[in-house]
Amino acid sequence: MREKQLIIEALDDWDVLTPTWFEVADYLSVIEGLHENENFSERHRAALLASKVAYCLGDYNGALNLALAAEDKFQLTPRPSSVLVGSQDEQYVNKIIEHALDTYKKAKRNEDTIDPRLERLINRLFERNMKRRELRYVIGLALDTRRTDMIMAAFKASDDQATLLTETVAKVLESQMDRAFRSIVLDLLFRLFAELDEPDFVSMCQCLIKLEKPDDVAEILQRLVSTKVIF
Question: What are the 26S proteasome non-ATPase regulatory subunit 1/RPN2 N-terminal domain coordinates in residue numbering (predicted)?
Fold first, then answer.
């Protein structure tokens, strides 16, 4: 068993795998079998290796499924470029993430059951970018993946909530998202605006107009008149 561990570890290196993947592909079922063996200590690394081989074969569905099986062995941050094979790991990681997002977005649109492992991977993407404080990226990704919880999280983490909300309203109004989801997002943004000490009434009215709530727009305008607030 130790010998198999060493082989898996050796092949899990693009410098070794790139020139040999075609031969390794002949043993793909064996590598997958090692992953399925719960007594094999490197089973998750075996899944990662199998994912890389599937990627080389152009089987992106298989590569994604095996990357999910690899759990935390699949790293969101690519390994450093190699002198021999360049940014091979970056290309692999980016392709898996791209395919994961496409699969996730399609499932969300169709209201299909989502693989919990895929959900965890998408959550890892959000967590990474939240830690980096790339909040605009988080919101863009949240809109694409229909994750209103992450819109809320990004807003709560922002040091300039009003600006971020105003930018998000503009992005939603310019987008081609379906009407039902757009209404959900605009309603959320309106409620978030209402929590601010100094809300952007123009953006709030834009939300209400798109939500077809003219009475609420009139109420805001009346408040502006009565309190003499100037836009």
Answer: 15-227
